[in-house]
Amino acid sequence: MLFDLSNDKSVNETYKLMAQTIIPRPIAWVVTEDEGVVNIAPFSYFIGLSSDPASVLISVGHKSDGTPKDTLLNIRKHQKCTICMVEEKDLEKMHLSSKSLEHDESEAAFFDIETVYMKEEFPPVIASTPVSYFCEFNQEIDLGGGTTIPLVLSVKEIYVKDEVITDKEKLLISFAPVARIGKSYAFLGEEIVPPVIP
């Protein structure tokens, strides 16, 4: 079956097709702040873009009423965010935090998600996260219409909990991330070591 993405009803279809076939997608909690209100939102349209310069990309949509999501508003206003990787043990809270709240309501308070400030100039880190990226806004990408805004973020510092570093000399890291598959979530499970290429 061939899907034509140029027709008027294609936006919802396109999301369903891409979300179920580009898998698994990592989920990141994006933490922003405005006027002391900590906003926490999970994003599965998130990817590492480059390691030199260190950059990631998130795609932020709009609320059902057409207004920008708080994550987009806060990054545009303050130019900073903290990205926290989600582990299996936080799946329920991560899922709950996807609920849309008013701009002056904090997901941290509403869903009892503990945060801690590690860098004074950045939003807080989710206390249970194994890895956090402290990011500054780099640019928005104009896709020529639509309601999704891709944001390129420059990674300034990365925090990794000591207990997930399995080999400090080789800098090997191991934790239990959550991925998105369609409307469901997945755990990655067993790692498969590739054979040595002769």
TrEMBL record:
- Gene Ontology terms, MF aspect: FMN binding; oxidoreductase activity, acting on the CH-NH group of donors, NAD or NADP as acceptor
* Record flagged with keyword Hydrolase: no
Q: In which family does this protein belong, per the annotation?
A: Belongs to the flavoredoxin family.
So which cofactors does this thing need? FMN
Pfam name, any one: Flavin_Reduct
List the keywords (alphabetical).
Flavoprotein, FMN
Supply the name of the protein: Flavin reductase family protein
- Residue span, Flavin reductase like domain: 23-164
Cited InterPro entries? Flavin_Rdtase-like_dom, Split_barrel_FMN-bd
